[in-house]
Amino acid sequence: MYKSLENFIELLDSKGELVKIKEYVDPVLEIAEITDRISKQPDGGKALLFENTGTAFPVITNMFGSKRRILYALGVESFEEIENYLNTLVEEITRERHSLIDKIKLLPQLKEASEWFPVNHKGDAPCQEIVLFKPELDRLPILQCWPKDGGRFITLPMVHTEDPETGKRNVGMYRMQVFSQDSTGMHWHRHKTGARHFANCKTNQFPVVVTLGGDPVYTYVATAPLPEGIDEYLLAGFLRNKAVELTECLTQPLKVPSDCDFVIEGYIDKSEPFAIEGPFGDHTGYYSLPDLYPIFHITCISYRKDAVYPATLVGIPPQEDRFMALATEKIFFTPLKLSLVPELADLHLPEEGCGHNFAFVSIKKSFPGEAIKVAHALWGAGQMMFNKIMIIVDENVDVHNIESVYQAIKNNYSPKRDTHFSRGPLDVLDHASPTCGFGGKMLIDATSKMIEEGGDKMEVLSDNFEFPIVFTHEEVVTNGLITVIVDQTINLEDHYTALWQWGANCDPIRDSKFVGKSLVMDARHKIKGEGVREWPEMVLSNIETIDIVDKKWETLELGDFIPSPSRRFLKQ
């Protein structure tokens, strides 16, 4: 548990996980370019504290950008610590109890759980030490991350809403484009709880309050895929083993954590037309295109005297969010297994898939067709509905080791027999689907096959195909079970980037065909036409910003020079 974001920053500094940058760095493009170079280092690089931003507030980026830092944020030594505790807790609560003594033994667990629920803060709240009843967003060092962004965006907002019917709170994370000193966009998709709350509001003014900073666990839980109706601050209380203290807002009827760094209060007018928001360089590695979203009108801004402005950068992976996704895999594995998929052995969402495009799943298989059953169960589980390509393997395969997954494909996968297509919801940000938010899905069943599945008659395809997956620039049949065609700018030896483009640019149904005994998939840039929507540009920095950062690199004291990751794609 941390008393403030500054408290967490002090810990990172003491652990050698932070670099303080005293040189002036412009929040428009420059901070993002520096962060992109650092966050793409093999270990995630250091957290960056930009102390001179041209405003009264420093900016921290890449805060969660390493396994060590996300563990520090969650207050644990390992992800297994959370996983084991959850297993023990669920086992104790669900165990059948016959005697009075057995039932009494459950009381400590129930008492502990009761201490996770949010409570009211007593006294003056730190987040309201300074109050601006005349909102001025220009006071905050809000970033513009990429050259073709529609403007500056708040990228780590914790957006608080309440269900108009039940009063239940939701805390989500939806980017916010600055429109004016006192208004922003509110980029919530139709699948999101905040959007549903807004749709159900019966009055014109729908209260919304946005917070930034505070205990870093708040930021994490705002991104967590909790079932609707479960309070994010209950999860925060569990993770930090202490209740979150909430304070009343000053101009809106909502409560927020008292120790946040910034509170931005306001409303959305239901009678007001939506505004064009975007484009924005997104976590897919491509720009999300302009679209219509609600306008958030700000009524008040308050903040701590020692406030630090937190921001994150998204774009071509790897980025900081890969470590937040790693935490989510571990924390939500046990509930997913217990509630939906008891045969689940392990689950991995590889960072190349940007959260949704790929899922590597291992199962304890006991009957024919079980992989197909698991795929459909997972596609129906919360945000797993956005998954596009799922590869399921046996329980003895390490899904965190891509070579092990590839080997399982080579040993157990026959393309025509073991490729299963479906359609369903996709992330609104997925540009490859033929229609927004809806498109093809694919299961690659790489489990060992039983007799009923043709296991006794299986061809030894590994004799015919040297590799499980081959990336190529040409429309040719290769010696791979799966041939993936990528753009000419992709280095075929760079499987990380090729895998990213496969997930980003491919609709499994539209872009797949069987050629002989192999599966061929087209992951190239597409031209708008029948079955293809407008294709966005790749998220890249520009030469002007790259040159500025190159020239000031030594004064930033960031160590050995790191070239811009954007340079390798700029010719495209």
Number of domains: 2
> Approximately how much helix is present in the residues?
25-40%
Distance, first to last CA: 46 Å
E-strand count: 29
CATH architecture descriptor of the largest domain: Roll
* CATH homologous superfamily descriptor of the largest domain: Electron Transport, Fmn-binding Protein, Chain A
CATH topology of the largest domain: Pnp Oxidase, Chain A
| Overall CATH class of the largest domain | Mainly Beta
Q: How does the overall form come out from the CA principal axes?
A: globular
Main sheet makeup: 9 strands, antiparallel
Mean pLDDT: 91
- Report low-confidence residues grouped into runs of 5 or more: 103-107
Provide the descriptors you would attach to this structure in a database record.
572 residues; alpha+beta; Pnp Oxidase, Chain A; UbiD C-terminal domain-like; 9-stranded antiparallel beta sheet; 5-stranded mixed beta sheet
How would you describe the overall organization of this protein?
27% of the residues lie in helices and 23% in strands. The protein is built from 15 helices and 29 strands. Strands 5, 6, 7, 8, 9, 10, 11, 14 and 19 form a nine-stranded antiparallel sheet that branches. It has a five-stranded mixed sheet with strand order 21-22-23-25-24, with helices on both faces. Strand 16 (280-281) and strand 17 form a beta hairpin. Helix 4 runs parallel beside helix 10 and helix 8 (216-223) crosses helix 9 (232-240). The radius of gyration is 24 Å and the shape is globular. The model is unreliable at 103-107 (pLDDT under 50).
